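PROTEIN DESIGN WORKSHEET
SECTION A - STRUCTURE
LENGTH: 441
TOKENS:
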């Protein structure tokens, strides 16, 4: 890989994150509108957001940059200007899809264990979709032993993109047809609440900003996403430049990461039941730390051990993502009216931090020009893959220590007593008192 494509691709990824952050901000500002999009395509369908990316890549392969910008020999700035609108279009749809689908978790599941299960299955489906893509890519490029991608690989990429669109379209249609959204009437909800003599006070979007738990959970989610984003972004560069592996491993190693994450996600419901959120989160941090230590000792002589490190990192990333999303679900609880705002805010923090992190990584890159060979790149990507995920994990652990005495979801504005006229006898007083005590807590 030359420096120009390497730097350009990373800057482009940073732009993706920043575009997504701005789009997420718009959706957060209109969270009530986002709730109307609950029938949007799901992230669990796996491919619907990727359809836009697939179209973008096909557009690149078929038409390329227009001649007015220099055609195939266009400068980096011209390529950036040409492809940026595709990124913006993709991120608008992605933000709407992700937030709406996440908000569905609290809408259709009322039990904490079931929410963990839904988040686990959702993440498993997300990883499974990536496994399918990388599996197809491995089949397309696995017979080619060359070390670099060339224009001769254009047809394989086009086949890959058409496969992604076809599979994604089928699952998107299946979701819309086969997945009903639970909707309860106001009367039924009020009757259920009156039977318990307590009424949940719904949270307005501004109320969340007054809850310190909101910020603690946001940091935990943001850091867990940073671990996954940075590692996924720089795996290809680490494999090619640091370990000097053939290009087929650029598909195989991420495939291993996603497969291990898939199986780990399926276990998260049971693990969370046994260990709880915070201890499960610590286990994920330990796995990430172990994988970073293993990567530190890898070099050309023992580079095949990267498979073991990839398995551990994939399992740790899945553990962190599922558990952090479950924390967000616990934070929202039954306050589903503004659940989209909470998920949107978490996503906003994730996109801004990820984009900033990628920009900073490229700002300190030792290769500042378009030189074909950059000796410092191999060591630099080694440091990025080791110290960034490990550093984010350490900071996340420190925030987790602050959260130990806190029960996530017990908000200051949570319960209010409802005194019905027909329930004024002495036998109702203990129940009403318990409601009031929960409010004071």
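SECTION B - SEQUENCE
RESIDUE ASSIGNMENT:
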């Amino acid at each position: 890989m030359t420096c120009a494509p390497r730097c350009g691709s990373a800057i482009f990824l940073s732009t993706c994150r920043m575009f997504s952050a701005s789009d997420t901000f718009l959706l957060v500002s209109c969270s009530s509108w986002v709730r109307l999009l609950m029938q949007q395509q799901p992230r669990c369908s796996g491919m619907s957001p990727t359809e836009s990316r697939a179209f973008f890549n096909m557009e690149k392969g078929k038409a390329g940059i227009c001649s007015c910008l220099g055609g195939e020999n266009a400068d980096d700035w011209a390529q950036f200007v040409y492809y940026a609108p595709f990124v913006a279009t993709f991120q608008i749809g992605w933000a709407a899809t992700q937030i709406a689908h996440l908000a569905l978790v609290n809408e259709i599941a009322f039990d904490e264990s079931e929410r963990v299960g839904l988040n686990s299955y959702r993440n498993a489906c997300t990883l499974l979709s990536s496994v399918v893509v990388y599996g197809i890519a491995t089949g397309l490029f696995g017979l080619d032993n060359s070390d670099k991608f060339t224009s001769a690989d254009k047809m394989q990429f086009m086949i890959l993109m058409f496969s992604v669109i076809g599979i994604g379209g089928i699952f998107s249609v299946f979701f819309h047809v086969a997945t009903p959204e639970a909707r309860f009437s106001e009367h039924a909800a009020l009757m259920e609440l009156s039977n318990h003599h307590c009424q949940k006070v719904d949270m307005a979007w501004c109320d969340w900003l007054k809850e310190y738990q909101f910020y603690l959970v946001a940091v935990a989610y943001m850091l867990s996403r940073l671990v996954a984003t940075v590692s996924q972004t720089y795996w290809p560069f680490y494999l090619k430049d640091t370990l000097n592996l053939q290009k087929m491993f650029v598909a195989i190693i991420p495939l291993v990461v996603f497969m291990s994450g898939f199986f780990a996600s399926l276990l998260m419901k049971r693990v969370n039941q046994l260990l709880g959120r915070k201890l499960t989160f610590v286990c994920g941090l330990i796995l990430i730390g172990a994988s970073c230590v293993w990567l530190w000792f890898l070099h050309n002589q023992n580079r095949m051990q990267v498979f073991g490190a990839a398995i551990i990192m994939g399992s740790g990333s899945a553990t962190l993502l599922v558990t952090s999303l479950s924390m967000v679900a616990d934070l929202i609880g039954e306050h589903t009216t503004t659940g989209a705002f909470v998920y949107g805010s978490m996503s906003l923090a994730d996109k801004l931090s990820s984009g900033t992190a990628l920009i900073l990584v490229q700002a300190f890159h030792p290769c500042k020009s378009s030189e074909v060979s950059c000796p410092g790149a191999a060591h630099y990507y080694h440091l990025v893959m080791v110290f960034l995920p490990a550093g984010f994990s350490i900071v996340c652990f420190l925030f987790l220590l602050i959260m130990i005495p806190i029960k996530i979801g017990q908000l200051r504005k949570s319960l209010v007593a409802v005194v019905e006229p027909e329930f004024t006898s002495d036998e109702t007083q203990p129940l009403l008192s318990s409601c009031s005590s929960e409010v004071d807590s």
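SECTION C - NOTES
The first strand starts at residue 198 and ends at 200.
The longest helix spans residues 76-108.
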